[in-house]
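Sharing a chain and its predicted structure for anyone who wants a worked example. Both blocks are below, sequence first, tokens second.
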Amino acid sequence: MTVYQVSHVSVWIIGFGRRTGWVVLMNDELVPHSMAAYRLSVLPGDGTGREVMAEALRILAVFEENSPIRFEITEIPCGGQYYLETGEEWPEGSFEHCRDNSDAILLGAIGWPGARLPNGDMAGGQTILGLRSGLELFANVRPVKLYKGVPHKVHGIHKQVWEPDLVDMVMIRENTEGLYHSLLRRMEQRAKGQKDEPIVIEEFPGLEGEVAWDPRPISRKGSERIVKFAFDLAHHRQEKLGTPQSVTCVDKSNVSRGCQLFRKVFREIASEHEGVETKEAYIDAFTMWLVRDPEDLDVVVLPNMFGDIATDLASVLQGGMGMAASANLGPNHMLFEPVHGSSPKYAGKNVVNPIAMLQSVQMMFEAIAYRKKDSNLDRCADILQNAIQEHFDEGGCVTYDLGGDASTSDVGEAIAERCEIMLREQFATA
């Protein structure tokens, strides 16, 4: 385990990446970045998370070798497999390192069969959930964009169902409250070495026998910051894309008090943002509209649980979970990860799609570049985006989930080779 040198990080305010339209973090008082290397905390995790992380590290090495950018990488073992081997979810001091000594955090996947804590919680949860709650990563940002040439698996048949220009949205999921709040809090307390203080309710009138329950708190503060986040993003996309944008609020406010507050806050904030169309939908109807009319959606904001479900459904529009990248953003920190899980049944077979991981790296490049005002890293973000785009435009190899037979490393190597060529052209005279 690397010996940690703890330093203090700055406080960031919300800003935006210019290409893909998702939100990044920026301190508008920062001077140009002067450190020798960007500090990355790398958490490979479990199963196929380790395999796609290997491709991310391959990409990072290519950019280090062929551009001016440098990384100081601390790889931290973690997850269910690590728990079964050691009895710990990650080494002591890992949370503090991620909090105090990271410009960004890159996560593979968490979860392994049979890896459970004594209380029944998923072993390894304090890695992703503890960081999500403990670092106040309140916004889960999931771009949903279809690349040309990416087929969809529908009824076992790989074919193009939606045209690429019909699928271009960003889904904003509230990331710290709702149904998962109590679990997130437990994992945060565990990550910080604190004692969990459970909420106790003696009985539920009308129910008999054993009852399992979870609270679902939704606060005004949490609703305001995520809804403001969504509207700011819509204005940004409107400016950068040159097309009118809408914000769609998705909830279940016809039956849920928490969602009623969420909808109320949405309407209050919407009234302050002229020029952005607003839409409202109940989650059950929205799931139908999402796959039926994706062209009608630009920015979508949802409470935690509904966001978790709907974003996975949205991944079908872009070719599946293997194509779905994400950012977890807060006022002080940021974490990037592919949306897919650890896929234990595919672990060790070198067959899963690494594109979601590589796209997460691209999002990370763009975020750090914008935050640190680093034009070289900004150019690198462009190069990685273009390499992925050209790979599909030109019919590059794909994994089984897209109807191909290429391996994880085949795809990763192909993208890396494209990046190397582009980097040499871009920085040859630098």
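Comments welcome. The radius of gyration is 21 Å.
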